[in-house]
Structures are given as C-alpha cells and as structure tokens.
Amino acid sequence: MCSQSPHDETVVARCAQFETILPLALKSRPATGMEREREGARWTRQFKDSPTACAEYTSHERGRVKKQLGNRTGQKKSRIPCFYSQMNLSSWNSLRKLFEQNTNRWNGWLFREQIIPKGTRKSRRPLETSLERGMSRFNIPLSKARIWEYRLLRDFKRRYHLVNDQPLDQKNSMEWLALLRHYGGPARLMDWTYSFWVAVHFAVDRAKAGDTCEIWALEAPWWRAQAEKEYQELTKVVKTDGSNSVEESKQVFCMKKSPGLWFLSPFRLNDRLAAQQGAFVLPLDVTRTLEDNLTALIPNHKSNKHIKRYWFTATPSRLKSCLKELQRLNITRMTLYPGIEGLAQHYENALGLPHLFKGIDGDLCSGPQ
After folding, report:
1. What are the domain boundaries of the chain?
2. What is the dihedral of CA 120, 121, 127, 132, to 10 degrees?
3. 3-class DSSP assignment, residue 114
C-alpha cells in the first residue's frame, strides 16, 4: 500500500485513487520507463485539481507518486488491489445470459450506465456525481461543494415557479434535489436504477460506434450495512421516522467529514424516477469524491464482490440488436422519459429499428399522412 504520513490528511484519499486508476494493461506486465512516466503524468493531471488528491501538489509529491508507480508496475507478481471486479461482454446474448445467471442474486442491487467515448485514453470513467463534474469543469475545489450545493438549490427553488405550477415543500431538500437532478442539474445525487435492463438502455441509448459502454452493479444492502456500522445515528433516525423521510435527509445533509455512501429517494416520486425504477446514491461527505466516500467503507479494497463493472465496445450491429430487444421489453426513451420530450427523442433510436416501419413508404410530398 501507499505510505501514509499522519500529518497529511489528503494522503489516504490520494492513495485510494492511485490504487484504482492504474490501467489494467500495466498490472500484468512490467512497464517501460516511458509508460511509467506517462501514467504518472496522467494520474497527476486527472487529480491535481481534486482537494482529496492533494490540492496543493508540490513537485516533491509528484515525484513520490511517480516513484511509487514505477515500483509497482515493475513487479511481475504484484497486483494492485481494485475496489471492483469486471467482465467484458460481447453481445446481447452475453447480456441476457449474465442477467439469467444473476436474476435471483441481484435482489436489491442497483445498476448504472456510463459511456467512455471512442479515443479516450482511460481504462474506465470514474464514478462521480454531476456536482463533482461541474465543479471540476470550472476548477472549483470540492472543499467548496457544500456552499455551491446550497447556492444552486436556492436559486432553483426561486425560479421553479416560472416553469412549473406543481407545489413542493420548501423544507424538503431531498425532493428538490431529486427534481433538479432528473432534469439535468448538478447535485450530489448519483442516478442508479433497480432495473438491469434500464441501465443497459442508458448505456446504449446515446452510444456511438467505438464507444465503451459500461454497466455498474452495486450491492446496495451490503454498502448500506457498512455505512450503518459507522454511523449508527442514521440508523436510529430511519428506525424512528422511516426510510426516505425528511428527517433522514436532513441528517444526511448535515453530516460533515464523515465519508461513506447512503441511499435515498424522495418520499414523493416524480414521473421520471418512477418510470426508470430509479434510486439515488450519494456521498455522505460532499467535499470528497464519491469514490473516496466509497473506498472509505472498504479497508484494503476487499469489496470487489459487492461492486461490479461490465463493459462492451459499441458497434452498429450491437447497438441495433440491443435497442431492438429493449424495445420489445418496452424500454425506450418514450417510456423512460414521460412527456413530449421523451416521445420526440425516441425517434433518434427509431432509426435503428426499421422493423417498426415495415411497409410504410412515401415522402412529405405525398399528401396527408
């Protein structure tokens, strides 16, 4: 493991990141000097703006990280522990077989998609919230996440009545955050779903040929049990007031410097959350990355049985076959995004489903449809 200095509060988080991002190709063979240098530079670029990866990165620490990287990649028998296990999938049949093998075991699991665009030099995308991505985009340190979370939600509440007449409880922050997130706003809430096939749909929905489609599977009951062991006050609130209560969300949002994961949904589900069988995973310490919060619950990275990554490379034929089978399951943008927006966007993927339009010919000059 990485050496840790007691006086450096960022070392633990930095080491956790370092343990997980080294590309798999360098785990199984010695790396050349150039590869070690390149991977070290990539690591520092990716995390130099993250306060949990050391906001004030000195040249001395950069050299130390590169030295550690060089030592690790030069050992043939040494393998860097990873907080997840993974499997490559090749076709719709492999997806279906995977589901059939795990359908009973996946009771209570959550699923999430991610897409790595073609040409991206990353072995995977980090699991991160939309709030993390937004702050990283403008080079804002995560140490300021709490105040920015408050600012954005406050402004959203002030303007909400301009676009929607549905009344919401001003004091129910969870309900407001869920609405903000489901319409694309930045929040600490990370979207997951209880449906494996809904996650598959989101993985291929906007993918292009050459993209890497990821499907993450998270054993939510196990992760929640780990958090309950650490934070028994949350467990007491749930037992007293019930799950997904206003009191539970207040307790979660008031926690500081308490890394971990929690699972919340608003008591009143909005239409998209219901249609997508959605749930939210959120970091208990919003000033640290979601992966930092995750790894804080798993000493020595021994959690790979409880979080899994499945992936495949998108091709036109794979995308067509997946969308065709998902349409038969009635899983489309039209059903997952109720309303005219989902209906209109549904036709983007309909271009890959010609069997739906068999026998329909003509053009706009042929008169009324």
Report:
1. 1-80, 85-353
2. -80
3. strand
Rounded-to-integer distance, Cα 121 and Cα 47, Å: 15
pLDDT mean over 73-90 = 66
Give CA angle at 113 (109, 115), nearest 5°.
Answer: 160
Q: In Å, what is the CA distance from 4 to each residue of 1, 134, 158, 317?
A: 9, 30, 46, 49
In what order do the strands lie in the sheet containing 110-116?
85-88, 307-313, 212-218, 110-116, 190-193, 278-283, 261-264
Decide: 131 and 289 in contact? Cβ < 8 Å. no
Exposed e or buried b per residue across 245-256, where buried means at least 16 C-beta atoms within 10 angstroms of its C-beta: bbebbebbbebe
Could you count the other beta carbons within 10 Å of the beta carbon of residue 74? Answer: 15
pTM: 0.75
Mean pLDDT in residue range 272-287: 95
Contact 36, 73 (CB under 8 A): yes
What radius of gyration do the chain's Cα atoms show? Answer: 22
Q: Check residue 354 and report its DSSP letter.
A: G
Q: Return the pLDDT at 37.
A: 57
- For residue 324, give both structure tokens: 């065709």
- Hey, which residues does 86 pair with through a beta bridge? 309
Place of tokens 């983007």: 348
State both tokens at 338. Answer: 């109720």
